[in-house]
Design brief:
It is built from nine helices and four strands. It has 348 residues and is mainly alpha-helical.
Amino acid sequence: MNTNSLIQEVKNKLSTKQKVELFNYLYQDISGKGIKGDTELAHINTFESRILRMFGGSGTINQETGLKQYFGGGGGGSAAPDTTTNFVREAPGIEERKLELMDMSRDLIQTPERLPAMQIAPLSGMEQQGITAAGTTGVGQATTQQGIASALQGIQGPNISQFFNPYQSYVTDEIARQGQMQGNQIASNAIQSGAFGGGREGVQQAENQARTLGLIGQSQATGFNTALGAAQNQQQAQLTGGQLLGQLGTTQQQQAQGDINQLMSSGGLQRQLAQQALDATRQSTLQQQYEPYQRLEFLKNQYAAGPTSQSGITATTAPAANPLAQSIGTGLGAFAAYQGVTNPRKTA
């Protein structure tokens, strides 16, 4: 039969009075196993155990009984202590809640938080389009080169011959033919009048020839002036056109630059909005991760601002009477005395 079965059998057979007598006997037997002055058995809580150790109790295990022992603590005596230390602590209920808060904080920080990575918004589509456009150089260059070529042609001077009237020779021939006909008429008139070869005919033929040559020269001069005016007009047109083409090339370049600036500006705004969205998402994640810490902080503030109750403990370095040990010993002693009076032991 094992120990538990034996104890259970004895328990069931004994009456309450007999159990009390057995307790008194066992109490005296077990308490006598203490060392270094330990003669009392008692139920104590954790707080009381800390007090006993605080007053010098060992808190070790008795090798014979297997029970905790606290020999070496402050005992009786009435000598004044050399040094008195006051220990002030929270009331047990409040202290337990604060310790629980510390445990919650410890458990929370033992698991590292995975902070969300910072993200950079990429270039927007418009920005990429603007960068591509900026890489295309020479916008308006062809137009400017055309303007330069036209201006150079105007500076070099026009080819007047290309503006001569191709029918000028027909006009000259016709004037000469008319002059010849007029000369023939003068000669015919001179023959009829019997003055052919005379001075009057010679004068008339000279006048006719001079008139014919004058008309031919006048016609040629008119044709030259017309060709010259056309050539000058072409020269001015080339110079003006070259200048306009140069300005147009510059305008094309400025317009292309303006388009690039507009693309970069609008694309930059799109990228800023995308970056703000990424930052807002990261901030929301951080707030969710640190929300438990905020609740702990709130609870800590509540404990700090709430009512507090403190208890004091006095510790001395000189030997002094242990109130707890005395109270426990007194209580057990009184109980043992009562049992001794009411239930005197029989001796053989």
